[in-house]
Amino acid sequence: MSPIPANMKALVLRHDGYSGTAEGPSIASLSDWCALLEVPVPQPKGREVLVRVGLANVNPSDLHYIKGEYGQPRRKGVAAGFEGMGEVVAAGDDEAARALIGQRVAVSVARGGSGVWAQYALTDARAVVPLDPRLSDADAAALIVNPMTAHAMLLLVKDAGAKAFVMTAGASQLGKLMATLAPQMGLASVATVRREEHRSLLEGLGVGTVVNTGREDFEDMLVMAMRQVQPTVLLDAVADRYSAEIFAAMPAGARWVIYGKLSAEAPKLPSLGQMVFMKKQIEGFWLTEWMARASPTARQEAFAAVQDRFISGAWKTDVAATLSLEEAEEGLAEALSGLNQGKVLIRP
Predict the structure, then answer these.
(1) Distance of alpha carbon 322 from alpha carbon 56, whole angstroms
(2) What is residue 171's three-state secondary structure?
(3) Is residue 114 classed as helix, strand or coil in its secondary structure?
(4) Contacts of 118 (CB under 8 A, 6+ apart)
(5) Whole-structure pTM over 0.85, yes or no?
(6) Over the Cα atoms of the chain, what is R_g?
(7) Three-state secondary-structure class, residue 226
(8) In angstroms, rounded to a whole number, what is the distance separating the alpha carbons of residues 108 and 85?
(9) Which positions of the chain have pLDDT values less than 70?
(10) Main-chain dihedrals φ then ψ at residue 18, nearest 5 degrees
(11) What 3-state DSSP class applies to 38?
(12) What does DSSP assign to residue 30?
């Protein structure tokens, strides 16, 4: 194991706290929010571990966070980036944390840690997942946020007694993961897309009904889909007017589960009488809370199942671009704006 340097390159936050805005996960330039600097390598204490980052992921939650629109405040001067993979190279004095030294792991940066858009990341030992050696770096870097959300939310659908569900942003990486998992769990699905070329992609992954919100006949197609499939859970990453229209068209007892806000638009709620007379519900899902509530056994079983799906080829991570830290500072916004529905990764 090579020695740990005193300093490292990192894309660090320019601002503190919350912004008070709700513009959504889009940026014109990463340099508006992060600066590429040389900063001290963080030192692990207690049950913290230090990870030499091999590959970092870029999720919508990262963009919400750097803009001050996420569920936890920014910390100026600290590296950004919630998810990635690498090797544990140091740990605090906690025995369980020290046992991870030398292991290849997936990383989720816990509150108070230092992010993965850097050469080294600091997080709680409970927020890393030892990796099967057969798992590729790209799959490992995107192992937690999308795959675990797909796993957890389809468990939510099953536990609700639903036979079918609707998912927005169907052509996203998370949407594609849910599309392939749903048939294995005996669930039918309806997916929404914004481009007609994404229809065949999702149908090939097992989605029975795909509705394009950009078509003039969207409302007619939506009504037909609701009658034919009868979905009772809406898994929503967009939260816009189309989401509200879908929820209004769903049958009695439907649940609108919002787990993302890709749109800056504020949706108009359907008739509130539906909440009373049709017993509909609106709620939120945050993976961080689900992980905190789940038992250690449940988390371990979930991570094992997720890794197995990637290793077997049932799931895969589609990569649109891989950038260095220097390239990300200047080119991340452009890479994210492409039509390719793949992940953008950062290699420190």
Answers:
(1) 9
(2) coil
(3) strand
(4) 8, 9, 10, 11, 12, 39, 53, 56, 79, 81, 325, 348
(5) yes
(6) 20
(7) helix
(8) 9
(9) 338-340
(10) -95, 150
(11) strand
(12) G
